[in-house]
Amino acid sequence: MIKIQHIYKRYRSVHALEDLNLEIPQGAIYGLIGPNGAGKTTLLRILGALIPPTAGQVWFDNEEITQSPAAIQRKVGYMPDFFGVYPDLTSAEYLEFYAGIHGISRSKRPSTIADLLELVDLTSKRDALVETLSRGMKQRLCLARALIHDPDVLLLDEPASGFDTRARMEFRELLRTLQGMGKTIVISSHILLELAEMCSDIAIIRAGQLLMAGDVEHVTHNLSGGPRIELRVLERAADARQLLKDMPEISTIMDENDVGEVIKVGFTGDDQALYRILAALMAHDIPVVSFAPHRTIDRLEEVYMSITEGVSSL
Q1: What would the pLDDT profile of 35-47 be if each residue is shown by its tens digit?
Q2: Domain formed by 2-214, architecture
């Protein structure tokens, strides 16, 4: 487990992190979400023992990073948001170079490099120059670099930016494979779809301060007012809203004065409550054409927009 206790980071007059406390469970895929300038990259660099905090402590189990930064760095693989590649090297030579930096014996390097290239699906690009690789391939190569010393923890800063839909799905499966190998993965990203699909837990950070942390459903439940239902009717939307308003399972009706066909409501209860709501609508001859819980990604997007209101992402 990683335990972050009262972390501050200041750059002269800039307060990048302010009294941040967080616990990252072992084996989690943990997402850091927030606008640009929130402090996400600063936090990753502190976790990687690349920069010290101004105040506070970070514990990796029983080791505190400022007391043993070299030991922490051996446990951590860091993938920054820039490539940092050497274009005149082949993919294999690139990994060979970093294997040497991490002190991997020459006898183990060939098998380690072959295994990593297979893991990130770059075996066919083993002898290709790095400069000829696509953006997505370079990112996968950088991930292989971060894994070269078999770290327990991976710190990934905007790891899937520039990926198309297929590449993002493949990357998500790769992260789950790494999680299955026992690795703890911390991801910084502003792409909400990535976090909802990839992460088991998230922390929302704004202006260096932690707003909320926990598993994805817990965070979206607490910050978006609980579970939601979205339904669409052919007609009689006003009647549907009135009926829903009088039901004990309905906690709120969003846009109550709207006259549109799409109705969003907050509800309390389980699947039985969902059934009772739909059954009541049908019993009153409300022509319902769709009825479904609000997707986690949609609710997470609402949360993100509400907490970053007035904050530029440029």
Answers
A1: 888 899 999 999 9
A2: 3-Layer(aba) Sandwich (3.40)
CB atoms within 10 A of CB 162: 12
**Can you give the pTM of this predicted structure?**
0.77
For 203, the enclosing helix (H) or strand (E) is strand 201-206
Report domain extents, the chain.
2-214, 228-293
Question: How far, in Å, CA of 232 to CA of 230, rounded?
Answer: 7
Tokens of 110: 């060939």
Is residue 280 a contact partner of residue 180, using CB atoms and an 8 Å limit? no
pLDDT tens readout for residues 47-102: 999 999 999 999 998 899 989 899 999 999 999 887 766 778 999 999 999 999 99
Instruction: Please state which CATH class domain 228-293 belongs to.
Output: alpha beta
| Partners of residue 133 on adjacent β-strands | none
Asked whether the beta carbons of 313 and 35 are under 8 A apart, the reply is yes
- DSSP label of 56: E
